[in-house]
């Protein structure tokens, strides 16, 4: 087959009818916006020609010089005398020194320069006015000078360190809180008496030195009965301490702890302790009675039976209630209160000594003021 025959067999291009083709139904594209600043010649020559698109001329702003713009800006934002209530953001003419706009009582707009500030205003106040937020400097200065927040932070940190040390080693509490201007002498070398007194005075005064010396009473019974016998025994112990330890002056307070029993009502006996603090130089003598622990009447009867023919039977018994109660409860004689009521003797003495220390501190304050 020749090339001419092949060309003749190529199908002809398809023809589209006006009404059956989908593309013929699509509307022509809309005109795009034109940003041409000048009008085309064709549009100018044939404004009424529908085939030539009409172009709307666009006005382009003409650049203005800086001098003329500055003048126009001043005119725009200038405050006229007729309208003083309008705010003027215009830059002041005196650009060399800063000025602070303020309102006068007559509501007129004025300026205040640093040289015109009152002399009563301090430099820190000027700094706080010029630099917002600089009041923190004044706050820090006041905190340091008055010993306010920084002192409390330091005390809190020291207290935390001391608590950690005493938790790891409870015996360090006595070392950390010993010292200061206060020294208390306890008329006893028993730890069950010295330890609560030390803790009480150190908690009230912060720091205090508390030491104990052995002391006894030869003029009263081993187990005093009644408040009067207990007070006489405590006074005897204090006198013994001062007579043996001549280095103790009258300015050193001496504290005695004396346990006694008392019948409040018929056949109702209670054991308690009397604390007496004496400081002759200030004429101070304080007495404090501790919490009471009930004692069975059978234990008192046994102590009375064992004290027949005792030389100090008028002031009490020859056998202590603690020894009888400890034997019946099968506990050490220093733990019978806890075994009987659940409260140890150390806790009982601690609360009484703390009350005594608080009263003593108030008397010292009164003596210092007078």
Automatic annotation (TrEMBL):
Its main location: Golgi. Residues 188-280 form the Non-canonical purine NTP phosphatase/PRRC1 domain. It is found in: Golgi apparatus. GO terms for cellular component: Golgi apparatus. It comes from the Eukaryota. Keywords: Golgi apparatus. This is Non-canonical purine NTP phosphatase/PRRC1 domain-containing protein. It comes from Euphydryas editha (Edith's checkerspot).
